[in-house]
Design goal:
Blueprint (H helix, E strand, L loop, with lengths): L7 H6 L13 E2 L1 H7 L5 E7 L4 H17 L3 E7 L4 H6 L7 E5 L5 E6 L4 H11 L3
Parallel strand pairs: 1-3, 2-3
Antiparallel strand pairs: 2-4, 4-5
Length: 130
């Protein structure tokens, strides 16, 4: 499957080997993505892939954030290689890209690459999620 808008550097950075991540958060399909963005909750979507090394490294961080925020936020994966049309719609060019949406479904911040937990928490607080 081709993914024309994905930066070639992201493909180099992602391995085809599968790594087991501790604390993996669920992945969404396109209807699930649409539904979660209209749920009236803070939402963090990591646009990545199940075999992308930086994406896999993010899984424990995402799981810890989900645990810390509980029902105040929803944190999910969306696999851009499986659903390239939706990735294009959200202007995803590199894997992983984490996008934070406020309760109205509006994008409030995004980050590309591995996002250390402390920096992630700071960005979420600055966006209004505490």
């Amino acid at each position: 499957m081709t993914f024309p808008s994905l930066n070639i550097l992201a493909l180099v950075a992602c391995s085809t080997i599968s790594l087991t991540a501790q604390g993996h958060v669920p992945a969404l399909d396109p209807p699930g993505l649409s539904q979660i963005l209209t749920s009236r909750k803070w939402t963090v979507i990591e646009f990545g892939g199940p075999t992308c090394v930086p994406c896999v490294k993010m899984q424990p961080v995402l799981a810890e954030l989900q645990q810390a925020f509980g029902s105040r936020a929803q944190i999910r994966n969306f696999y851009v290689t499986q659903y390239p049309r939706e990735a294009q719609f959200h202007k995803i060019m590199v894997m992983p890209t984490q996008v934070v949406f406020d309760p109205s479904g509006k994008e409030v911040t995004r980050h590309i690459g591995y996002w250390p937990k402390d920096e992630f928490l700071s960005a979420l607080a600055n966006a209004g999620l505490k």
